[in-house]
Amino acid sequence: MSTYVCNVSDVPPGQMKSVEVDSLPDPVLVCNVDGAYYAVDAICSHARVDLSEGSISGCEVECPLHSGRFDVTTGSATRKPAKKPLTTYPCSVVDGELYIDVTAAAPALVNTQP
């Protein structure tokens, strides 16, 4: 089931936005990586900090507290202290509106941090 989260114009390329989703306990982080949209848990799996307060570079978002990183395309933790992957949500765009499928959420299967 797809849930509307925002307009695509709300998340320009290279940017991210934290959005509340009624059916989820925590917000979702919507990211625009070169025109492709990705959605992951907005709360760091290491320190429970809102990742939207951090930074995004390419496909990696960095936690503002301890600088752990996650790949938003897979949810994988890519730099310590982050170890546990983020849940990812499939995205779709319809008429300029961004939707995520909360029923198809998937945790990353592999972590790639050194």
Automatic annotation (TrEMBL):
For this chain, one GO molecular function annotation is: monooxygenase activity
Q: Which UniProt keywords apply?
A: 2Fe-2S, Iron, Iron-sulfur, Metal-binding
Statement: the UniProt record of this protein carries the keyword Aminoacyl-tRNA synthetase: no
Task: Name the InterPro entries on file.
Answer: Rieske_2Fe-2S, Rieske_2Fe-2S_sf
Official protein name in the record: Ferredoxin
Q: Which N-terminal stretch is annotated as signal sequence?
A: none
**Which gene name does the record give?**
hpoB
Query: Which stretches make up the Rieske domain?
Result: 3-100
- The keyword Transcription is annotated on this UniProt entry: no
Q: Which organism is it from?
A: Rhodococcus sp. PY11
Gene3D superfamilies given for it?
Answer: Rieske [2Fe-2S] iron-sulphur domain
